[in-house]
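Researcher: Please predict.
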Amino acid sequence: MSVVKTERRPRGDLARVLVVDDEADIRELLDLTLARMGLSADCAGSVAEARQLLERQRYQLCITDMRLRDGEGLEIVRLIGERYGQTPVAVITAFGSAQNAVAALKAGAFDYLAKPVALEQLRSLIKSALSLPQQSGEVSGASSTATGGPLIGDSAAIENVRQLIDKLARSQAPVYISGESGTGKELAARLIHDRSARHAAPFVPVNCGAIPENLMESEFFGYRKGAFTGADSDREGFFQAAKGGTLFLDEVADLPLAMQVKLLRAIQEKKVRKVGSAAEEVVDVRILSATHRALKGCVDEGLFRQDLYYRLNVIELRMPALRERREDVAPLVEALLQRICGAQAPQMQPPALQALAAYSFPGNVRELENILERATALCANEAIVIDDLQLAPAAVAGGSVGRDGEALDEYLNRLEKQAILDALTKTAFNRTAAARLLGVSFRSLRYRIERLGIEE
């Protein structure tokens, strides 16, 4: 006998939700919760029944268990992704089953809930899913710096980024944004947030390498009054500040291992405990992360936890280096000059533009912006010539060749190693003082010393 239950409440055109679970009590709990939110629900106890309902009715949300009597919830996730792409899917996983949750998110699930289902988290998930735009728009605009504004360019590389951002905005899955410094990783994170159902809530960017290690837990999770000396009142942390929105963890590779453990638990359980508090509180945030370093390499070197890596890197968005999309240099130059100078922007002479197109841009879009700001200050007669750009000769060539035929990466590593050695020499090999002199965190300097093989 079929256990399909179709609700026929007189609710007009209100959103309909498909609930798929082989446990009657879970179906009833979800059905009651949806009814109290003024939503209409159809319930199915198997994959086959869910398929029948999907053929007859359009749904604004599907909530499915991972394990069903005739198959897996992932079958429903994939089916809806292929045939009913505008319907977000949330999956219910067994408590502590991180592997299932990650698999569901990779398959295209909007979000997940762990058993036993917390009603507060359930209601928050439903509201977020129903807030998604029905049609995805193109990410476009007039500025493309590493600090703000939409993406610019017509290259295949940047078009792929646009399309992936559009897809990621319709999910709650954690996203790891990789790429060199200056490629616009924070810009991509902001675009994902702005295109998502969380766009009205805060976007909280955090530079993980700029927080002292002894303050990390209180900065991330907050603290209670009296938790430690100087805690004169309750204070919220980054997770609470991003409530309902997005928490962007920049330079996440700089997190110390002890903090990585606490962050992993917060992501898995969707709960945090303030310093000095005995109780946990539910937090509804989406995690986006980025670093210019190879995070997988940090895992292999024992500097980053593998389980946290897989939690953060559910989906990877790679931001291409500017030298990989040279055809975008001209429109970027035009847009940046307008942003820097407004309507009175000087003209870029063709030889100067050709020199920029041949430049390797170790600092990517951020470096291009700096070059143009310098050139506008130096140029005469409202025209920018090659001399105004002051490009490094070693980085001007047709590809990744550096000084005297040396590969660019080798050249940059040599310069970086020499700068670190100079700083260490000036500070009598005091790494803390050297890090301060170089303008980087102690952990970042320690990593660079190990990577470059620098010995005292």
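Model: Residues 5-130 form a domain with the Rossmann fold fold (CATH 3.40.50.2300).
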